[in-house]
Amino acid sequence: MLRYNFKYEWLLLIRNRWIQLLSILLFLLFGFAVYNGVQKVKTRQANISNAISELKTQETATLSVLDSLEKGHKVSVSRWRLPSRAVVIGNSLPRVVNMPAKSTAFIATGQSDLFAHYVEPTVTGDDLSISYTEMTSPVQLLFGSFDLAFVIIFLLPLLIIAFSFNVLAAERESGTLKLLASQPILIRVWVLQKLGLRFFWLILCIISTLIIVFVIFEFNFSANWTSFVILLSYILVYALFWFVLAFATNIWIRSSAKNAIALIGFWVLFVLLSPSVLNQLSNTIYPIPSRTLMLNKMRTLKAAATKKQDEILDNYLRDHPEYAINDSTQTRNFYHRYMATQNLVKEELSPVVKKFETQLNNQHQWVHAFSWFSPALTVQNSLNDLAGTSEKDYQNFRHQSLEFAEEWRNFFITYMFNNQKFKKSDYQNLPSFKYTYQNEVGYLRILGLLGISLAIVVLVFVLKPMKHLNILE
Question: Is residue 455 part of a domain?
Fold first, then answer.
């Protein structure tokens, strides 16, 4: 019977032009989505490259001035802009602390269209300025990006619904169901076979189309074959879930129209409604303190600290004797007081910032913990992790940026407090930054979704239809 079903389904799909139409549609959708993703990644990399190029140009000019100063030549630079002053180097030549895109970044835009991918920490800058630059397009925020993740999560289920909603209902409505019931096979098994074969042809089309599209856009399979296999496994499990829902719906609902309405209802519930509800609940349970109030408090602290800078500097030098000004010929200047004040403001704001970050992390953890309520959210999080564009990646980038900003500031503090001149040879010792991804793969989330799909199949076989839902009527 399975052999007959295989042959019958193949002929039916070919004659109805389902396979041809599906292949063309998948190629267009995947091709356009990958193109959009690749263009976003190129723009991201170009912005970082431009910032690095600009830094190198400034470096060349600065090193030339330093060389002239050390040789005793006159330079046409104002006294306050001389690169022999460490604070000038620390502020005018900040490192480009960047988050390079993964080779798979084109798969899912994730958070990458919300936040900046590089910052330039300075000596006199505060940590709150090392943040993210949010996008300003309300249209982009509303509709998101047409990337590969969007096609997989939003559009693929609709194709599956159109591909499978009336497998059993069409037989019932055409009057051939009772003839099929006379064959030595359970109706449930027969429907499962038909949907299984359609699942097989769909996955075959997806794999073939993805390979062609990835080859067109010069994806390096040899270096990233693991990522490609993981991507296919996510698609396979997600598609399987929707075929399982179609299987249950075909068994328990009588008509094609009701099947279509029920499956569209599931699509709205799992793809649109559940993620929104989880997000709103996370905001309610773990409300984030107002960032505006935090910034206002920072300004208030700075204003209060400015009035007692000398006292703050005395306390700071008492706590940091390594920065003490031992030479009586050296005088306290603006930057001595400013750095001590900044340190105090940072300590005073630490509880507020910590509360802000704790609540944000609680929100993310809560959403991830209950993401199994929404298969779409489960796969979205997994694809974001694979692409390196998840909220965890950007939180990690921010933390690494703050650590480097502290390292950068500490490097110049000794020069500043001892009024030590910066030399050309010191330039080679400047701190450097390299972002490190925390590679995470959502195996558990995907296995959980696979378990839910298998559980639905078991329930369909175990539970008997009610009398008015008998599939033979």
Answer: no
Local structure of 111: helix, strand or coil: coil
Q: Looking at the domain assignment, is residue 309 inside a domain?
A: no
Looking at the chain, the whole-number percentage of residues with pLDDT higher than 70 is 77
Backbone angles phi, psi at 387, to 5 degrees: -85, -15
The answer to whether residue 86 sits within a structural domain is: no
Dist CA 302 CA 294 (whole Å): 12
- pLDDT tens profile 76-127: 888 778 888 888 888 888 899 999 999 999 999 888 887 888 888 888 776 5
Nearest in space to 423 (alpha carbons), one of 40, 67, 74, 47: 67
Whole-number Cα distances in Å, 182 to 177, 178, 189, 423: 9, 6, 14, 93
Helix (H) or strand (E) holding 97: strand 97-98
Nearest Cα neighbor of 367 from 392, 342, 345, 346 is 392
Among 252, 186, 265, 234, CA closest to 385: 234
Which residue range is the domain that position 246 belongs to?
2-29+148-266
Cα–chain-centroid distance for residue 217? 21
Q: How far apart are the C-alpha atoms of 125 and 345, rounded to whole Å? A: 12
Specify the DSSP element, H or E, that contains 328.
none
Which stretch of DSSP H or E encloses residue 347? helix 334-369
CA 195 – CA 460 distance, rounded (Å): 14
Prediction pTM value: 0.83
* Domain count along the chain: 1
Residue 171, classified by CB atoms within 10 Å of its CB into exposed (0-12), middle (13-18) or buried (19+), is buried
Q: What's the pLDDT tens digit per position in 317-335?
A: 666 665 665 544 355 566 6
Spans in the chain with pLDDT lower than 50: 132-143, 327-329, 466-473
Within-domain flag for 45: no
Q: Which long-range contacts (CB under 8 A, 24 or more apart) does 137-146 make?
A: 140/113, 144/109, 145/36, 145/37, 145/40, 145/109, 145/113, 146/32, 146/33, 146/36
**Helix H or strand E segment including 119:** strand 118-119
